[in-house]
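tool_call: predict_structure(chain=1)
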Amino acid sequence: MIPLVKVAMPEKSVLLPMLEQVLYSGMIAEGEAVYEFEREFAKAFGLNSVIAVSSGTAALHAALTLSGVNAGDEVITTPMTAEPTNTSILYCGAKAVWADVDPASGNIDPQSVRDKITRRTKAILCVHYAGYPVRLRELRKIADQHGLALIEDCAHALGATYEGRSVGLIGDYGIFSFQAIKHMTTVDGGLLTIADPSQLDAAKRFRWFGMRKGVPRTEVDISSIGYKYNMNNVTATIGLAQLSHINSLVQRHIDNGRFFDAVFSKTIGVDFARCDTSGASSYWLYTLLSNHSRELEQLLIGNGVSASKLHRPNNLHSIFESASIDLPGLNAFYGRLLHIPCGWWVDEAQRQQIAELIQRG
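tool_result:
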């Protein structure tokens, strides 16, 4: 079976000596390896102020808190995502307000966002779903017009760009995930980007019980809530090893995705997700669109190729309010959606096999 997602690890000859060194260094919690990983990751993707944390969800919680989201506030968000995007809003005591999605991409629709703004709205949370950048220029304009924070969930989109720069740079905050099956993994982990560097100290306190690292515990003063959200030296070391080959790995996703784009642009009965002309996808998953998605899924699985819708729209979960809201764009997209493998593990013969199966189907 060609898998839909797969864990990527560096060669043993690269990773194991690095891990042995850190494991027996006497310092395995947050330390210099974490700070080196922050610097090297920022350099690799052209980011500015960043902090590494224990998960992408922790980064989202931090971004929402730094945005001033509190109990009773509203965050306009997308239901077309993994659940932690939106359960993080509940951590703050706030309400997730569903915007509709663009049926061409599955991403949040800027016009629907504009329509959902109320006096309680504090932030806009967008997701670059499956690696396809959202219409960031429009969302940035809406956020600025209404004095709202813009948070980019880039968990699916490592290596994706908008206007020639990494995603995560146009929002006030961006988050990346290094969970097991993402483009790049540290086993688990995440990273927060912050547009205003004056908030770095508050973010670092948030990830460590409200305390500042490096200050003797007998001298610290906790003045705000914090959590144990820090990354540790072991996972950071895996991240440092991953950075040595991440560009070629992401490029393989992109090459496979563009191959499928070229093939399916000439195939009757199927279409594929598209972002606006300023965005370039990193194709964490390839997003196929077809009125016969269920039949194609069965065909692919029957021939040894994993295929799935992967996520359940979050508005269907009873934990969220307004579960019955009408979202025609989401319904149109989800009904036609089918994810197929396009990652680094898919070789040229396999991608040709997948394309031929879909063309026949």
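agent: The chain has a mean pLDDT of 96. Proceeding to next step.
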